[in-house]
Specification:
Blueprint: H1 3-19, H2 25-35, H3 40-50, H4 58-72, H5 78-85, H6 96-110, H7 125-134, H8 138-146, H9 156-169, H10 237-240, E1 252-254, E2 265-267
Antiparallel strand pairs: 1-2
Length: about 290
């Protein structure tokens, strides 16, 4: 399970616990294990944490559940998530509403990271306004300024309404239909071309060239059919030389967000708002604008 799937599972479990009144230790342990059966890694983690539990009480469940969340989300970093949110821009094919929902959802999830501070976690209201405003197309932001408006003096809802009027005047472009390839290569012609690599072929370690995807490498993009989320056959050179098994969530990426590391690359410790990721079940985490 990836981080987003883990959060989705935790939310569903908490909803079941509340709505179905799982109030006893045995009921909590039993239902937790049943719901985890679809994810082997998560199930193994839970069984390791509960192997030493002598009794199945609400108290021992709470301890195990807290440990489970920390173990499954251990690679996430609260500060890295916020830094990522400060740099994203709305992809051309995404609606203003969907972008704001994802921005607010990721901010809400950041507050639940294992290392999130007890107070002052997540973006402030002012920062959230700034991230939303700065994530809009430059032309829309310029029009906002020409209209005599300043984002710091507006409510988030007012900025949202203005940007939706800009969107209505210039509708979101739909993705262009894929055309059959005439390439005679081995079949991985779905990868975009790059002018910085031999033969113009983008490499797994290169920044993703797709609109709005600039904060992850091509190997991590869900639209890369040979990357981590699909066939996992074209891996970064730094990963291919190690024994790291496919499917791990720690991948060497260009260090674009952190200046604290002296290495040539940094691990990704945030949840990407990849255009293919399913956020629909998490949108309830974000209030409507």
């Amino acid at each position: 399970c990836n981080s987003l799937e883990t959060f989705d599972f935790l939310k569903k479990f908490e909803n079941g616990r509340r709505d179905l009144q799982w109030t006893t230790g045995p009921k909590l342990f039993s239902n937790m294990l049943t719901l985890l059966s679809e994810c082997t890694d998560a199930e193994d983690t839970w069984e390791d944490l509960t192997a030493q539990s002598a009794t199945e009480t609400v108290a021992t469940f709470t301890v195990a559940f807290t440990g489970f969340k920390s173990a499954m989300l251990s690679e996430l970093r609260h500060d890295d998530q916020l830094e990522y949110l400060r740099t994203i821009s709305k992809p051309g094919t995404m609606t203003v509403r969907a972008f704001l929902q994802r921005l607010k959802t990721l901010n809400s999830l950041a507050k639940r990271f294992p290392d999130a501070p007890a107070t002052n976690s997540g973006l402030t209201d002012m920062e959230l306004k700034r991230c939303f405003h700065h994530g809009m197309p430059k032309k829309w932001r310029d029009n906002f300024t020409v209209a005599g408006r300043v984002y710091s003096s507006e409510t988030l809802n007012a900025i949202y309404i203005y940007m939706t009027t800009q969107e209505a005047a210039a509708p979101v472009k739909k993705p262009s239909p894929k055309t059959p390839s005439t390439s005679n290569d081995s079949g991985d012609n779905q990868a975009p071309r790059s002018n910085t690599t031999p033969g113009g072929r983008i490499q797994p370690n290169d920044p993703c060239p797709l609109p709005g995807h600039g904060n992850h490498i091509w190997y991590l993009c869900r639209q890369n059919h040979f990357g981590k989320h699909h066939a996992d056959t074209h891996r970064p050179q730094t990963q291919a030389s190690t024994s790291t098994p496919p499917g791990t969530s720690t991948v060497s990426t260009p260090d674009t967000a952190s200046s604290s590391s002296s290495a040539t690359g940094a691990e990704q410790h945030f949840i990407d708002y990849d255009g293919d990721a399913d956020f629909s079940s998490m949108w309830a985490e974000a209030d409507e604008p």
